């Protein structure tokens, strides 16, 4: 079969109209062209329906022949799925909060923060509880290696993840028009910060790393609203900024305040907490003095 000529395809506005005619409540968000010069040309009209379950985080789609305008399938279109596909899509929707609108998205965001805090604080409390379990006399207990490694891994993974995500979000305002492969750059930035934080935590130890990593996470998160502010003040830098992302900047600002508070509180614990705690910066000094005596 000879290759199709993309110039013969229907205009995007007509393809969007065809999708909306199938489901009036469908709100198109983008077009994805697949094999337009091949034997089975397809355009997926992606979008969401506020009153229906979306099978994916981006919503759902109607598959249309871009040359004839024929509807190929609506199995993944919100509000047009049969019972079997709707049953499967409901699991994706529950996992990715692709239903219920903005209020459900915020609820999932807050639940995600609560889960992350529970994981982070729970690991720190478990590590600290090992000290109390080991203290059986007046002597300062020696922390077991597995406990020390667990402490380093906990802060390296958790805080490295926060810093990496924040930096790659901020980089999203700098990268457009400057790099060809955005996805590769985003992944590279995230994993460089993530694995770098873990490596640093294992090399330096938990007590010496936790406060600097908290400040790194705070600085990385602050880069999100600061980049938006810079883009507004200096438009000549050609930074990407959109008023619809204002909620992200405001949320990041409050995240900076929370991380800065955690850093200051943790710093006091490192400096003035019990010397036999794995989170104490005084532990090394005390151990050396005891050994010298």
TrEMBL record:
<keyword id="KW-0472">Membrane</keyword>
<protein>
    <submittedName>
        <fullName>PepSY-associated TM region</fullName>
    </submittedName>
</protein>
<keyword id="KW-0812">Transmembrane</keyword>
<keyword id="KW-1133">Transmembrane helix</keyword>
<feature type="transmembrane region" description="Helical">
    <location>
        <begin position="183"/>
        <end position="203"/>
    </location>
</feature>
<feature type="transmembrane region" description="Helical">
    <location>
        <begin position="106"/>
        <end position="127"/>
    </location>
</feature>
<dbReference type="Pfam" id="PF03929">
    <property type="entry name" value="PepSY_TM"/>
</dbReference>
<feature type="transmembrane region" description="Helical">
    <location>
        <begin position="244"/>
        <end position="263"/>
    </location>
</feature>
<dbReference type="InterPro" id="IPR005625">
    <property type="entry name" value="PepSY-ass_TM"/>
</dbReference>
<feature type="transmembrane region" description="Helical">
    <location>
        <begin position="148"/>
        <end position="171"/>
    </location>
</feature>
<feature type="transmembrane region" description="Helical">
    <location>
        <begin position="210"/>
        <end position="232"/>
    </location>
</feature>
């Amino acid at each position: 079969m000879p290759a199709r000529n993309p110039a013969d395809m229907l205009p995007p506005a007509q393809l969007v109209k065809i999708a909306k005619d199938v489901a009036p409540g469908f709100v198109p968000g983008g077009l994805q062209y697949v094999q337009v010069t091949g034997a089975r040309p397809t355009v997926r009209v992606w979008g969401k329906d506020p009153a229906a379950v979306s099978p994916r985080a981006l919503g759902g789609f109607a598959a249309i022949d871009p040359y004839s305008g024929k509807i190929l399938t609506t199995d993944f279109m919100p509000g047009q799925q049969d019972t079997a596909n709707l049953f499967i899509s409901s699991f994706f929707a529950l996992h990715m909060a692709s239903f219920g609108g903005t209020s459900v998205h915020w609820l999932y965001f807050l639940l995600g923060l609560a889960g992350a805090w529970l994981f982070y604080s729970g690991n720190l409390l478990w590590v600290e509880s090992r000290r109390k379990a080991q203290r059986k006399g007046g002597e300062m207990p020696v922390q077991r290696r597995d406990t020390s490694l667990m402490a380093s891994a906990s802060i390296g993974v958790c805080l490295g993840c926060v810093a990496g995500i924040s930096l790659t979000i901020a980089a999203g305002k700098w990268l457009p028009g400057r790099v060809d492969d955005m996805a590769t750059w985003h992944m590279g930035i995230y994993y460089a910060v993530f694995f770098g934080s873990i490596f640093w935590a294992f090399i330096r130890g938990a007590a010496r790393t936790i406060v600097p990593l908290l400040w790194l996470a705070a600085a990385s998160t602050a880069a999100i609203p600061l980049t938006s502010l810079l883009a507004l003040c200096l438009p000549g830098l050609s930074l990407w900024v959109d008023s619809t992302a204002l909620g992200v900047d405001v949320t990041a600002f409050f995240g900076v305040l929370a991380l800065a508070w955690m850093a200051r509180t943790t710093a006091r614990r490192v400096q003035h907490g019990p010397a036999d705690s794995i989170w104490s910066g005084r532990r090394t000094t005390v151990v050396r003095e005891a050994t010298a005596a």
